[in-house]
Amino acid sequence: MAYLVLYSLTLISLFLYSFTLVDLNLTFFNHPFWELFREKVIYIGWFRRDLSWILYLVLILLLFLFNWFFTNRYKKFNPMIIALLVSIALLMSYPFLSHDFFNYLFDARILTFYHKSPYLFTALDFPADAWTRFMHWTHRTYPYGPTFLIISLIPSFLAGSKFILNYFSFKLMFFLFYFLAVYALNKLNKKWAIFFATHPLVIVEGLINSHNDLIGVCLSILGGYFILKNQNLKGRAIFLFSAGIKYITAPFVFLSKNNKSINTIIFALACLVLVYLKITSAFHAWYALSLLVFIPFFPNLISKLNIFFIGLLMSYYPYIRIGEWSSQIEDTIIFWFLIINVIYLAVPVIWSRIKLTRR
C-alpha cells in the first residue's frame, strides 16, 4: 500500500509539473487560484529552466524505478488498480512536450463544428477561431488515416464547441484506450499488464502528451490478445483498423501465435521503419511506442529496452533546459543510450558463448 501511495504522489507531481510549459496563450479557467498556480509553474518552466530540467529528470527516473519495482513484484499488485491510479492522477495533465494534441482537437472540430473535411481544410482556413492562438502546425491538412478521425469525432461531437470539454473528452478517450490495453494484457499475463501500465514512455508520450500512436498501440495490443486466443480473424481485423491511424502498425497484421520466425521478422521490420524515419525525416520519442505492441510476443526483450526508452525521454533536454529544439543534441542523447542498451543486451550473449567454448 505504501508503494502505491508513493507512486500516486509521483504521478501527482508529474501532473503538476506538466503545466510548467503550458502555452502562454492558453487559459483554461478564469479563476484566481488557477491564475496563481499558472503563474508559479510557468515561472519554473519558462524562466527557471535549470530547475525545471532537474525536476523532469527526477520524475522520469522515479517513473522508471517504479516500473522496475512493480514489474518485478507483479504478484503483489493489481494492474487495473495501478491503471486507475495513473488515470485519476493524470487525466487532465497538460501535453507539455508536444502540441499535436491540440491539432487533434481542431481536426475533429473542422468536421463536427465547421462541417468541412480536415483532409481539405487547415486550421489557417478559420483564422477567427480562438483555438488557433495556441496551436502549432496550423498550415497542414489532416496527416493521419481515417481510423483516428472516426474515433476522434465521438469526443468532439459530445463536447460541442467548448474547449475545456473537448480537452477533457479527448484526454478521457486516450485513457479509455490505455485502460483497454492494460485489461487485455492482464487477461494474458499480469506481469505484462503491469509493465505496460507503469511504463514511462506510455505515461509521458501516450497519456500526458497524448500522441495518437498510443491508440494505435492499444488497438494492436487488443489485436494481439485475440491472435493469442486463437481468434485470428478478429485479431487481424483489429490490426488493420489500427493501421488506419498510422500505417507503421500495418505489418503487425501478420503476427502469429506459433510462428516465432515471422514475429521476429516483423519486429525487425518495425525497427527498420524507425531507422528509416530517422534517416529520411525525424525520429520522435513517441514513435517507439509501437515497439510495446510486441510485449505479448517478446516480453523479455521489450523489458530490456528500458535504457533506450530512458534515452528517448532524456532527449527532451534541449527543449526543457535550453528552450529550443536541437535535433543534433537529441540524436546524440538517443544514440548513446541506444549503444549502451545494445551493449547491455550483447554482453550476456557473448559471455555465455565464451563459457561454452571453454567447456
UniProtKB/TrEMBL annotation:
The keyword DNA damage is annotated on this UniProt entry: no
Keyword field: Membrane, Transmembrane, Transmembrane helix
Transmembrane segments: 6-30, 51-71, 77-97, 141-158, 164-185, 214-230, 237-255, 261-279, 286-313, 333-351
Descriptive protein name: DUF2029 domain-containing protein
Species name: Candidatus Roizmanbacteria bacterium CG09_land_8_20_14_0_10_41_9
Lineage: Bacteria, Candidatus Roizmaniibacteriota
